[in-house]
Amino acid sequence: MAGRAFDWLRQAERDLQQALFSQELGFYEWACFASHQAAEKAVKALHLFMGQEAWGHVVARLLLELPIPVPEHLVEKGKVLDGYYIPPRYPNGFPEGAPFEHFGFLQAKEAVGYAREILEFVHTQMAEEGRS
After folding, report:
1. Are 29 and 98 in contact (CB under 8 A)?
2. What pLDDT digit, counting tens, does each position of 5-20 carry?
3. Which class does domain 2-131 fall in?
4. Domain residues of the chain, as ranges?
5. At a CB cut-off of 8 Å and minimum separation 6, what does 30 contact?
6. Using CA atoms in the order 56, 58, 63, 64, what is the torsion angle rounded to 10 degrees?
7. What is the DSSP letter of 103?
């Protein structure tokens, strides 16, 4: 199963790059969603690397289902990112207005930062497990 782990991780890295580009261009809703995607795919990469499959899109739950201890602050950051899975994409995620009207620089910056931290955690775990 671990054979595809690095494919998932490379895509997570690319999604994070997309989040950064979207943030720089002012597409804050897409920066938030791409950050969620980066974190989700990175955690799924770690699951695969550790010999298990993971399903679903809830980053916090995916982190908790890892067979290793995960710092609570990362789970909390996963919860924030989970809030960026649907509302940035669909107009019915809010009572009124298009998604882009509800997201700004501060949310995008936070989302990108949280996703980056989760990717760093995954990189560290995969490097440590690879040396075992």
Report:
1. no
2. 999 999 999 999 999 9
3. mainly alpha
4. 2-131
5. 18, 19, 22, 88
6. -90
7. -
